[in-house]
Structure formats: structure tokens, C-alpha cells
Design brief:
Layout lengths: L1 E6 L4 E8 L3 E9 L1 H4 L7 H23 L8 E7 L3 H18 L3 E5 H7 L12 E7 L2 E9 L2 E7 L5 H11 L6 H9 L24 H13 L5 H27 L3 E5 L6 H13 L3 E3 L10 H14 L18 H8 L1
Parallel strand pairs: 1-4, 4-5, 6-9, 9-10
Antiparallel strand pairs: 1-2, 2-3, 6-7, 7-8
Helix pairs in contact: 2-3, 4-10, 5-6, 5-7, 5-8, 6-8, 7-8, 8-9
């Protein structure tokens, strides 16, 4: 089964081609970082217009790279939510139009499910069941994953997600957009032990997360210290986030009785987090899996793959194309219950 995937939920246009026999054949991605940098964040209208300009050329590029044609497609998968409404509409309308014209099914995929399943594209891939730590820009969640479509929420952020905390802290430090990667680069030159920052909800007894207080603590440090100390502040902040995520991950594995953690989302590319999780779980006889670095951010490959899994396992039938809905706010738990 050959599936075209289209991702357009926010500020990256991703297209990929996945074959259930041969794996990921090709993928292409256009990032809007340069477009939004002057505004310090994503401007929804500009994002939508850029998706309009990019998506069709990227589809052509991906098909050409894989030496495949539209006529060979068996299905089209696209991000139906959550995300920016206008951005979602671009990918959904292109995908549904293609499906209608070609007489093949179209499948709307939950964006977070795409992230959650993306580590399965790694080598070697993890196997079910596992605990998933989703740490994308606006989401921090622990999920128990027993199969495709079987997701149980274990805990989530009660305020700022880890990715938001990285971006907001980067703004406090005067770093350029996007803030998270810039902060991590600055932290590489700093001393993570210099400032004793709080570890929010570390001993809460549950799997919920909170990072707004940590961000506030950083803001007080920034006011009290010169720019020469910013690398140490960045490193101390990063260490605090990593400590909390590692502690909660170990707690999630103990609570579920599982021995395998899967990390997905943009923060999953953080090298300090990867190293700490690998070391701490190895000490406990558990393992951790990450998606390939280039698939940590939003991408078409995860959408094509998730759509293919649903069609292959018949957990979703797909629509004949032409009629569709998008879901700017879409709870993953509710989505999973609808699949039961």
C-alpha cells in the first residue's frame, strides 16, 4: 500500500511517501522559520498562505524523488488536527481533492498520534506496548500505548508545556526565534550546576507536569544577572526540565509495569534529554527509543505512516474524498475512544 502524507498543522509543510512493504520512500519539508522570525512567533495567516504556495510543489518533489506517480497512490493521509485552522484547511483540502480525483481513500490523522508513532520509523523500531512521552511545542504528555489507536493518558502538563517553556525562556534570554534550539545551543557552553532552579511537581505523586514556575524563576535570574551569566542560566534551566522529565518517565514505567519508553516531538531532539533518559533507564533495565532527529519536528513521514497503519490494520476505513472536517482542538484521548 502506497500512502502519501501531508502535514500542515502549523509552520512546517511536510510531504512524504510511505510504502507498507518498502517503508519510507521519500519525504520533503519546508520550514517557515525565516518567514515568522521577524514577528517572534507564528503568524497564522502568513502560515496558511505559505502552505498554499508550498504543498503542491512538495508533493511533486516527493513523488519525483521516489520515482512514483499519482496514479500509483493507494491512499492520502493528512493532518486533520489539532493545529491552526487555516493551516489545517490547506493540507486537508489538497489531500481530499487528490483522493476524490484519484478514487482512493483519504484519512485524517491526529497530529499527536503522528508524533507518537514516529519512533516506529526508527531502526530498530520499538514494539508495543510502551509508554510514550510526547514533548512537542504545545504538548507534554505521558501516554500508555498498547497498539495503534489504543492510547491511555497517564499525565500531562497543567500549564506551560516543555517546548513552550524552552521558547519563553529563550525570549527572556534574548535569543532568536525559534527559541528552543537556540537555548540548547547556548546551554552547551554553560554550567548546569551553577543555579539551583526548582524541579516543579517532582514529588507530586502523579504524572502531571508544570513548567510555568520554572520559567518565572529564570526571569528573576535574568533580572539579577548580566548577559555573561546567560549560558549558565540556560544550562541550569535545561537541566531542571530534563530532571523532571526523566523522573516522571521512570515513574510512568513503574506505574504501568512497562519497560520501554518512546519519546516523540520536537523536544525529543534535545541531546541532554536523550543522553539522560538513555542512561537512567538503562540503569533500571528499561529502554528508550527516539525517532530519527529529522522526524522529531513536524513532518509528512509521521502522517503518511500513521495513515498507512490505520488502513493496513483496518482501524480506520478512510473517506472517499471530497467531504471532510478539521479539528483545531482535538483531544488525543477522545480520538482514541472514538476508534474503539
Amino acid at each position: 500500500m502506497l500512502v502519501l502524507g501531508i502535514e500542515s498543522s502549523c509552520d512546517e509543510t511536510g510531504v512524504a511517501l510511505y510504502d507498507t512493504r518498502d517503508g519510507l520512500l521519500a519525504d520533503a519539508l519546508h520550514s517557515q522559520i525565516a518567514l515568522h522570525e521577524a514577528y517572534g512567533g507564528v503568524v497564522p495567516e502568513l502560515a496558511s498562505r505559505d502552505h498554499v504556495r508550498r504543498v503542491v510543489p512538495l508533493v511533486r518533489q516527493t513523488l519525483q524523488q521516489a520515482d512514483r506517480s499519482l496514479a500509483q497512490l493507494d491512499a492520502v493521509a493528512y493532518t486533520a488536527g489539532p493545529g491552526l485552522a487555516g493551516a489545517l484547511l490547506v493540507g486537508a483540502s489538497v489531500a481530499e481533492s487528490l483522493a476524490l480525483a484519484l478514487g482512493i481513500p483519504a484519512v485524517g490523522v491526529h497530529h499527536l498520534e503522528g508524533h507518537l508513532l514516529s519512533p516506529l520509523l526508527g531502526d530498530p523500531p520499538p514494539t508495543f506496548p510502551f509508554v510514550a512521552l510526547l514533548v512537542s511545542g504545545g504538548h507534554s504528555q505521558f501516554m500508555a500505548v498498547r497498539a495503534v489507536g489504543q492510547y491511555q493518558l497517564l499525565g500531562e502538563t497543567v500549564d506551560d508545556a516543555a517546548g513552550e517553556a524552552f521558547d519563553k525562556t529563550a525570549q527572556l534570554l534574548g535569543l532568536s526565534y525559534p527559541g528552543g534550539p537556540a537555548l540548547s545551543r547556548l546551554a552547551e557552553t554553560g554550567n548546569p550546576d551553577r543555579f539551583a532552579l526548582p524541579r516543579p511537581m517532582l514529588q507530586s505523586g502523579d504524572l502531571n507536569l508544570s513548567f510555568s514556575g520554572l520559567k518565572t524563576a529564570v526571569s528573576l535570574l535574568v533580572k539579577a544577572h548580566p548577559p555573561e551569566d546567560y549560558p549558565d542560566i540556560a544550562a541550569s534551566f535545561e537541566a531542571a526540565v530534563v530532571d523532571v522529565l526523566c523522573h516522571k518517565a521512570q515513574q510512568a514505567l513503574a506505574q504501568t509495569g512497562m519497560t520501554q519508553l518512546v519519546v516523540a516531538g520536537g523536544v525529543g531532539a534535545n541531546q541532554r534529554l536523550r543522553a539522560a533518559l538513555t542512561a537512567r533507564l538503562d540503569e533500571r533495565g528499561a529502554s528508550v527509543a527516539f525517532p530519527p532527529l529529522r522526524l522529531c519536528t513536524d513532518n509528512g513521514a509521521m502522517i503518511a505512516y500513521a495513515g498507512a497503519l490505520h488502513l493496513q490494520r483496518q482501524t480506520r476505513s478512510g473517506s472517499p474524498g471530497g467531504t471532510f472536517a478539521i479539528y483545531p482542538r482535538w483531544n488525543l484521548q477522545e480520538y482514541a475512544r472514538a476508534l474503539e
